[in-house]
């Protein structure tokens, strides 16, 4: 009887240990599956729901290292913008790299593409009128109706003086001119592909600074033209359908080559704050 009881006790202990190990394995398996949500990260990458304080916190924690900043931002997007503590994000980054490396690397690559090449706010001072300024707000996916119902895929930088052809527009990044000329919606526009792969779209220009050519290399700060009010027409040169402003859009291509837009407001806000919240 004692032997039976002993064996029963040993069996129960072994079952308890097995149950603990099984529970740990199930929890670990669930963590591997859930430590990084590609779909959530991609949706929030596009929306870029990010405050100036969060940008500063992530940059400061990363020691102003852009690679580290982009990793924190990638994980922040994957957490559905709920996790803001850099220490917790760093731990999640390590797990995501370990268990969901390919998905993490893809989203992180997109994040780096839109952040790593930023050097210059795209609008400068008016010659002889240093007091004139610009304003802009987060208008991502607000309703637009010209050409059919659609969401606004960019940020409008509005002129305090509603006069076309006086506010200079500069390239935000180094890059290569990929598109130039008239578009029905964008009017006179220029599109520049940055070294990291993002496409920067400057629309509604009054005129170009020069005769840019497709494939031409530009540097951050290159004078592209003047802010205007061209567009919303099939007739080239149409003006006056809206107030003078620069529409600034940022686009990426996914791994299959399909283009998608990213909210440009946080990047513009970052550059604006970096130059002291005033035109230069």
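^ structure tokens above, recovered residues below v
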């Amino acid at each position: 009887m004692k032997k039976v009881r002993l064996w029963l006790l040993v069996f129960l202990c072994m079952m308890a240990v097995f149950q603990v190990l099984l529970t740990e394995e199930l929890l670990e398996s669930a963590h591997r599956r859930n430590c990084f949500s590609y779909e959530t990260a991609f949706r929030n990458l596009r929306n870029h729901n990010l405050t100036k304080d969060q940008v500063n916190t992530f940059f400061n924690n990363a020691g102003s290292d852009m690679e580290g900043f982009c990793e924190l931002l990638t994980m922040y997007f994957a957490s559905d913008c709920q996790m803001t503590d850099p220490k917790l994000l760093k731990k999640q980054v390590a797990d995501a790299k370990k268990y969901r490396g390919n998905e993490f690397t893809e989203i992180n690559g997109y994040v780096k593409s839109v952040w790593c090449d930023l050097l210059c706010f795209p609008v400068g001072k008016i010659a002889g009128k240093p007091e004139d300024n610009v304003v802009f707000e987060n208008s991502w996916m607000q309703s637009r109706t010209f050409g059919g119902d659609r969401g606004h895929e960019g940020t409008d930088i509005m002129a305090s003086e509603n006069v076309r052809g006086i506010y200079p527009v500069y390239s935000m990044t180094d890059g290569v001119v990929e598109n130039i000329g008239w578009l029905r919606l964008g009017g006179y526009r220029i599109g520049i592909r940055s070294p990291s792969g993002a496409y920067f779209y400057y629309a509604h220009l009054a005129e170009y600074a020069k005769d840019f050519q497709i494939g031409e290399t530009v540097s951050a700060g290159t004078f592209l033209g003047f802010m205007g009010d061209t567009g919303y027409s099939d007739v080239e040169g149409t003006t006056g359908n809206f107030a003078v402003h620069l529409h600034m859009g940022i686009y990426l291509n996914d791994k299959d080559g399909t283009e998608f837009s990213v909210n440009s407001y946080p990047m513009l806000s970052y550059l604006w704050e970096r130059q002291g919240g005033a035109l230069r």
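The first strand starts at residue 134 and ends at 135.
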